[in-house]
Design goal:
Blueprint (H helix, E strand, L loop, with lengths): L6 E10 L5 E4 L6 E4 L7 H7 L7 E6 L13 E5 L13 E5 L5 E10 L2 E5 L9 E12 L2 H6 L14
Antiparallel strand pairs: 1-2, 1-3, 1-9, 4-9, 5-8, 6-7, 7-8
The structure holds zinc ion (ZN).
Length: about 160
Amino acid sequence: MQIAQDRVVLIHYTLRNDAGDVLDSSSGGDALAYLHGQGNIIPGLEKALEGKQTGDKLSVKVEPAEGYGERDAKLVQQVPRRQFGGANVQPGMQFHVQTSQGHTRVVTVKRIVGDMVTVDGNHPLAGEILNFDVEVADVRDATAEELEHGHVHGPGGHHHHDH
Ligand code: ZN
């Protein structure tokens, strides 16, 4: 079956940065399952997979604009340590914060100087050129429930019973 809008796609992948370091990989684990055409994965990878089928292998280079976006210096901010509610804040820790627009954003603690904590709200892969090696493991039709939720259920997808 070919990859097309609203089909469930399972892929094995290895992601490297431009220096060749492996950033992420599904090897040794479950394939990643996503619902095609629903923005479950980054646009550059989703476009490259359009029309491919089970068994196809491809290498895809994704620029930041089609990946996790460019780095935005405005998303690096200093906040007083007391705003973390007594948590033992350490560099590398990640927190969910509410933005002024009411969205949830993940921020990563970069450094701590005195009582000021520098947090970075950029995605860790923002600004990176992403090099994917992908193998299409399976393609199937989505269930009505998966289409309603906008994501895949079962192996490699979401596991939940709360909606
Ligand atoms: Zn669901």
